[in-house]
Specification:
Strand content: under 5%
Helix content: 55-70%
Radius of gyration: 28 Å
Largest sheet: none
Structural class: mainly alpha
Distance between the termini: 79 Å
Order of helices and strands: HHHHHHHHHHHHHHHHHHHHHHHHHHHHHH
Number of helices: 30
Length: 620
């Protein structure tokens, strides 16, 4: 059998493709039925510009989220074409992510196979290593979450660029493919900027033999690839210039003496972060890395352990470099690919020490390191190498099978995230409350959650405004007047503090939600049109430039009830222009609310006539 595989190498490749796809589908096939969750809502579900606006550079080059400097036009472009071709269909969005992730796994198989081409059992070891990549739990976040496309795309294009650089003979085809893949990685996420140093590491891994001097292979990297490297460097400079201009700077958080003192010296966060990424990579038997707050990791014992881990890694690298062993550059490649997310520079990760998706571009180097280790074992006892690799793959597959379903929908996602959060700070995540509202969970369950919150306030004295804001929104949705009272209190506070709302732990979006929900409650419960309109005007100041179906609907209703038909007509046409919405549902909802408020206020205006239908705005 082994002789046949050597005689017909494509048989082993096809066998890997078939087996890997079956494993991949077993793990991730269910994702095709998953919904949009978490930041998907903020990025495009509640922000319909990618679905409705014409294609423009401003549309795809905008920051990912308000207040950030993230510049990722290629992913925005992919969403633009996806939504314009298929609409907001989670199955399609997830399908694209899955295809790109699996293609990356296949490319990684060939990359590892190329690096090990001079060793025995290169194909078998490359296959086992690629399977480990395919089923590693640290890839779940970027793969099962639509907004993880930034990391999935960037990683795929980095692997493609590296493989093309190593495996294709020098020439125009190689230069073009590497350059385009590199630009695609840069356009997907900022980690693409690390391509050149990672390329050097893989060049050494592919062209250096253990125990040989380093200098010839170092020199060959620059001499043999001089023209292409100059071209890539030029593309990097152009990218940095464009990014600095369109993304409002290189970082969205300040880098100063205070940051360095607090982050480097006092809390030693980079060291702790490195240790956490390494342990989550080697031993991924963890919960989802979505709520791992820094303050719970910054303690004397963890600092000591983190320094011990980092010093051990440094010692291994020093020993390997001195002995001229290739595995050193797999470790260096891994460290390079996480260098932007270990707080050496200011980053925004919701104050978490790590995020699983940030490991995506580093995982290929971990897989190369695994392959080198298995290759070393195979030289001694092949059966031990195969057994060790398959046992590790089976172990982490078991973890992945359990974690993938968590991304199914908002309720399931925030339920599990809340459980993880409670392990650290003993309080549920506020978004769980919002998800319970969305899924119409019985009111008694929500009241139990709020009772738990009140007990925690009594115990700790810590008050979380956002929890009660969401609760107020829920009460308004239930037509409970207590919701108006609660939101009125927050509205009064906001009127007093103005733009200093951050001191209350609120974001601009939170301020909008308070005013919007308060205005909605005034209209639907008290039928107070005048005050609702006044509060809604305040809400619109915090909504940003992009209008949603909710804001347009309320705008139409309030304008019609104030006999501002021209303004209502404009908003109506904007609402009807939004693609893939249930237009008749919106029309029916608007007509119903108009009728109720006309009767409650005894209004005698055109919108309150018996034969009025909001569709009449189409002809005015």
């Amino acid at each position: 059998m082994m002789n046949n595989l050597k005689k017909y190498p494509y048989v082993s490749i096809v066998a890997f493709y078939v087996f890997s796809f079956c494993l991949f589908f077993l793990l991730y096939g269910q994702v095709l039925a998953f919904d949009y969750v978490w930041d998907d809502r903020e990025l495009f579900v509640y922000n319909p510009e990618l679905l409705n606006n014409p294609l423009s550079w401003q549309l795809i080059a905008r920051p990912v989220l308000e207040g950030t400097s993230y510049f990722r036009p290629l992913v925005h472009l992919s969403w633009f074409f996806e939504f314009h071709l298929f609409g907001l269909r989670p199955r399609v969005s997830h399908g694209i992510n899955l295809v790109v992730f699996y293609m990356g796994a296949l490319l990684l198989f060939h990359l590892v196979k190329f690096i090990l081409r001079k060793t025995a059992s290169a194909g078998l070891i490359a296959g086992i290593s690629a399977l480990i990549y395919l089923c590693h739990p640290m890839n779940i976040e970027a793969t099962a979450w639509v907004a993880g496309r930034f990391d999935t795309f960037a990683t795929f294009f980095l692997i493609l660029a590296i493989y093309a650089f190593l495996a294709i003979r020098p020439g125009m085809l190689r230069a073009l493919l590497v350059s385009l893949a590199y630009l695609a990685a840069l356009g997907s996420k900022e980690t693409g900027i690390l391509f050149l140093p990672s390329l050097f590491c893989t060049w050494v891994l592919a062209h250096h033999s253990n125990s040989e001097p380093w200098s010839p292979v170092f020199k060959s990297f620059f001499v043999k690839n001089y023209a292409l490297l100059v071209n890539l460097l030029g593309l990097t400079i152009i990218y940095l210039f464009i990014r600095a201009y369109y993304a409002s700077g290189m970082t969205h958080l300040g880098m100063g003496a205070s940051y360095i003192y607090k982050t480097y010296i006092i809390n030693q966060i980079p060291v702790i972060s490195i240790k956490e990424y390494i342990t989550r990579t080697l031993l991924p038997f963890y919960d989802l890395g979505l709520f791992l707050p820094i303050e719970y990791f910054v303690n004397p014992l963890n600092k000591i352990v983190s320094w011990a881990v980092c010093l051990f890694v440094a010692s291994v690298v020093f020993f390997g470099f001195k002995r001229r062993m290739n595995f050193v550059f797999a470790i260096l490649g891994y460290l390079i690919m996480i260098s932007l997310v270990i707080y050496l520079i200011p980053i925004s990760t919701a104050a978490n020490i790590v995020q699983d998706r940030f490991l995506s571009p580093a995982m290929p180097f971990f897989i190369i390191l695994v392959a080198l280790g298995l290759s070393f074992l195979a030289e001694k006892r092949k059966i031990i190498a195969i057994s060790a690799g398959m046992f590790y793959a089976a172990s982490i597959t078991f973890i992945t099978i359990q974690l993938v379903p968590i991304w199914q929908n908002e309720l399931k996602f925030w339920y599990h995230i809340s459980i993880f959060q409670e392990k650290y700070n003993h309080i549920f995540h506020p978004m769980l409350l919002r998800a319970m509202m969305e899924f119409n969970v019985p009111r008694k369950d929500i009241e139990e959650l709020m009772s738990k919150e009140r007990e925690e306030i009594k115990r700790t004295g810590v008050f979380r405004p956002i929890t009660f804001i969401i609760y107020g929104q829920y009460l308004v949705d239930q037509k409970d007047p207590e919701g108006i009272k609660l939101l009125r209190e927050y509205s009064d506070v906001l009127d007093e503090i103005g733009e200093n709302y951050q001191v209350e732990g609120l974001s601009r979006r939170d301020v909008f939600a308070i005013y919007y929900s308060y205005a909605l409650g005034l209209l639907e419960i008290e039928h107070n049109i005048k005050e609702a309109a006044m509060i809604f005007e305040k809400a619109k100041e915090y909504n940003g430039p992009y209008k949603t179906t909710s804001t347009l609907t309320l705008d139409i209703i309030l304008n019609l009830l104030q006999n501002k038909n021209d303004e209502a007509k404009k908003s109506y046409h904007e609402l009807m222009a939004i693609n893939n919405i249930a237009r008749e549902d919106f029309i029916g909802r608007i007509n119903e609310k108009i009728k109720i408020n006309c009767a409650a206020n005894n209004l005698n205006i055109p919108a309150c006539q018996p034969d009025f239908d909001v569709r009449q705005l189409e002809n005015k």
